[in-house]
Every structure is written in C-alpha cells, then in structure tokens.
Write a structure and sequence with these properties.
The protein is of the alpha/beta class. The protein has one domain: Undecaprenyl pyrophosphate synthetase (3-Layer(aba) Sandwich). The chain has seven helices and eight strands. The protein has helices at residues 33-39, 44-65, 84-107, 123-136, 152-165, 173-178, 225-237; strands at 4-5, 17-18, 25-29, 69-76, 111-115, 143-150, 190-193, 212-215. It is globular, with a radius of gyration of 18 Å. Residues 1-10 have low confidence and may be disordered.
C-alpha cells in the first residue's frame, strides 16, 4: 500500500497524499502580487514583499514532501517593461531574499541556482546569486531554481545559438535539450499558476510540453502549504500519457 502523508496540526485541511506519486519537479508561475496589493489599497511593492512569505512556504513544503526540484518564475524577460521604480524594488527584494534566506536554505540542504539571461541583472544581484549558488552547490536536498530575466522563447533561441556555435550543423530535439539553461533538471511534472490566469506567459515552453497544469484563483501572497497540497492531490488523480493513448 502507498504511504500516506498525514496533515500536520498547522494544516488541518491537508489532503492525504500518496508519497509514491509526489512530483519530482514542480514549477510555479507566481502571479497576483499586484492585485493582492491593489485590493488592500497598497503599493505593488507590498504585494511583492508579501509574496516572499509564500516562497518560503513553498520551499519548506516541497523539501518536506521530497520534491527534487522547485522552479519559480521570479522575473520574466518582459518584466523590464514595468515602471523603473518597481523593477529596482524587485531587484532589491531579490538580493534581500538571498541574504535573509541563505541560512535556512543551508539548514534544509537546499541547493540554489538561477536560470535566464542572468548577465542583464544588476551587478549586485548577479554576485549574490553566484555566491549563494556556490555556497549551496554541495547540498543534497531540494534544488530551488529561480527563473530570472527568463523567457521560454529566449531560452530556445539561446540553446540553438549555443549549439550552432559549438559546430552543430543540424539541431534535433536531443541536441537542443543539452543546451537549455538547466539541461540536468528533469522536465516539470506539475506546473502551478496562481491568480486564475490561464496561460503559460512564456515560461518553460520547451520543458513543459507534457507537464500537468494546475491553476488556482489564489493570489500568490495568499498561497500556503494547503494550496500546494491541493495542487499535488489533483495531480495525483491524473493519468499521464505523454502523448500516448
């Protein structure tokens, strides 16, 4: 019989999950920070800051459940079009998160890495990301992947260009896959989008070809462990066919 994960005292609504069917890789489009702040008549920055608590909850929950990889869509390539003050604040929050959370990541054996066109990030953010990645590279627990200045189309273009630069005259799926930003990561089993929007928003377009999608109307700053468990419970009800019958 499959082993069941029982609800903890702090999450009485936690569904019973089949531990043998926990997704190895979960990806999350963290949407709704702005709407969360607007509904409270607060500046958008308050929504982004509140979302950090949800990140912490998701990381802890995935680590507890034995998820191997958690990929978070933290800053898209299109987000540069937002007001300069908001972008500046987001980059500051990124650096704050890395510094503040690094001790807990180390304590829980989390390995941190980032994907995207990282060279366009501010120098301070690049350095803190690189330092944190180096500090956690030997950790054997959850791999936390932050997608920063990331776009799925851009990733495919970059992969093709790197393959061509290495002398490949013809590119097939196997070759292209080797040049993705994180070729050693498995494709996501489950992709969660908060806030109710029904689109991928240029996130993991190649990797998510056969990923199970789950959309919740919950805004990201309100997303907590029970919401994650509900998404996994729904995932466990599905039959994955990968294009087959």
């Amino acid at each position: 019989m499959p082993t069941l994960l029982h609800a903890r005292a702090e999450t009485p609504m936690l569904p019973l999950l089949d531990k043998s069917k926990i997704p190895a890789h979960i990806a999350i489009i963290m949407d709704g920070n702005g709407r969360w702040a607007k509904s409270r008549r607060l500046p958008r920055l308050f929504g982004h800051r509140a979302g950090i608590t949800s990140v912490r909850e998701a990381v802890r929950a995935c680590g507890d459940l034995g998820v191997k990889v958690l990929t978070l869509y933290a800053f898209s390539a299109e987000n540069w079009a937002r007001p300069g003050a908001e972008v500046h604040a987001l980059m500051g929050l990124l650096q704050e998160y890395i510094v503040r959370e690094l001790p807990e990541l180390q304590k829980n054996h989390v390995r941190l890495r980032a994907i995207g066109r990282l060279e366009a990030l501010p120098g301070g953010a690049q350095k803190k990301l690189a330092d944190a990645a180096a500090a956690t590279e030997r950790n054997k627990g959850l791999m936390l992947v932050l997608a920063l200045n990331y776009g799925g189309r851009q990733e495919i273009v970059d992969a093709c260009n790197r393959a061509l630069a290495d002398g490949h005259a013809k590119i097939d799926e196997k070759i292209l896959a080797r040049y993705l930003y994180a070729p050693d990561c498995p494709a996501p089993d489950l992709l969660i989008r908060t806030s109710g929007e029904m689109r991928l928003s240029n996130f993991l377009l190649w990797e998510a070809a056969y990923t199970e999608l789950y959309v919740t109307k919950t805004l990201w700053p309100d997303f907590r462990k029970p919401h994650l468990y509900e998404a996994i419970a729904e995932y466990q009800k599905r039959e994955r066919r990968f294009g087959g019958l």
